[in-house]
Amino acid sequence: MAENRSSKRFGSRYGNRIRKNVDEAEKGEEDYERVAAGIWKDKETGEVVAGGAYRKDTGGKEMLDKALELEGGMEELEEAKEEIEE
To answer: What is the pTM of this model?
Structure first.
């Protein structure tokens, strides 16, 4: 473990896995800093976005893309959209 871990401030509280997640979150995002659990702020622009507790990207987009691929893709979604619009 690194000497200057940011989660060292927690001592032995909260468990090892949680402290590792906090360390990864606070060093992992280049342009964003973790303000609180699920709240991320862009260092350059100051824009605040919601994300995961320990990572800015939760992987939701990849899961949605995979689900659409497995279910027949965008064609069915487009057909349903057209039916609703008519």
So the answer is: 0.47
